[in-house]
Write a sequence for this structure.
């Protein structure tokens, strides 16, 4: 993956990413490696082969820590491990999520708790874990992945849509609370990004055609299309931007 811009201040920075071994997260990991950052990431599935690939391609190996982010203690321990290896993270990317389709009338209390745990609770506790180190270092950047689903009011996954709206509120609250510590907190809301998971489970020709028709830009979104926005929010280039939601969706929510 070759980017058109270099963010020089990201070189050597300690970056922690949730879900950094597949889909959009894998592209984000590679994007930071290309900038010379020290990257640690967590994921449920073994990412050894991906790390081998990144090391061969960039000469730098990301630190992979296998972890279920719904286990708060394990998530916190993973951030501590990354801090010992690379120094306290100055950039946190809360990327991991699960947009499993479900019907309102089928949702149980346990399912709701699981959906909130993976799509919202983990974001809060990852942020809580990195903030002390960022404060000590004189600042940092937290990037919370949301999506345009709550802006569009999409059906078929109400718990996910609820969590995405909550991420926007969490982002604004943390930005206000920790702005005096020079910790910036922003959300990034992608449109329909065609990851392998999306293609396998939910993309249909007619559904994709209808969605692209709503976009101002008529190209489909690929994982690498999101990376530039993440690097921008992580870099001091955006040093006076906080509490905002950056939308990368080809122009869907602009036009409705």
């Amino acid at each position: 993956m070759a980017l058109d811009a270099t963010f020089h201040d990201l070189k050597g920075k300690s970056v922690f990413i949730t879900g950094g071994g597949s889909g959009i997260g894998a592209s984000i990991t590679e994007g930071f490696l290309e900038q010379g950052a020290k990257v640690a990431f967590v994921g449920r599935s073994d990412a050894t082969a991906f790390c081998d690939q990144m090391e061969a391609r960039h000469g730098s190996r990301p630190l992979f820590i296998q972890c279920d982010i719904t286990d708060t203690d394990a998530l916190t321990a993973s951030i501590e491990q990354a801090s010992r290896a690379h120094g306290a993270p100055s950039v946190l990317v809360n990327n991991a999520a699960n947009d499993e389709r479900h019907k309102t009338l089928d949702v149980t209390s346990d399912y709701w708790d699981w959906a909130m745990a993976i799509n919202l609770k983990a974001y809060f506790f990852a942020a809580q874990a990195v903030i002390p180190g960022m404060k000590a270092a004189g600042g940092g950047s937290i990037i919370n992945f949301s999506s345009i689903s709550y802006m569009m009011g999409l059906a078929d996954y109400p718990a996910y849509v609820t969590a995405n709206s909550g991420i926007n509120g969490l982002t604004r609250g943390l930005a206000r609370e920790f702005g005096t510590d020079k910790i910036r907190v922003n959300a990034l809301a992608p449109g329909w990004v065609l990851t392998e998971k999306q293609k396998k489970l939910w993309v249909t020709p007619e559904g994709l055609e209808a969605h692209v028709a709503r976009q101002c830009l008529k190209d489909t979104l690929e994982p690498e299309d999101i990376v530039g926005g993440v690097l921008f929010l992580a870099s001091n280039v955006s040093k006076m931007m906080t509490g905002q939601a950056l939308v990368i969706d080809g122009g869907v929510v602009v036009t409705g």
The longest strand covers residues 183-190. The domain at 8-255 is CATH 3.40.50.720 (Rossmann fold).
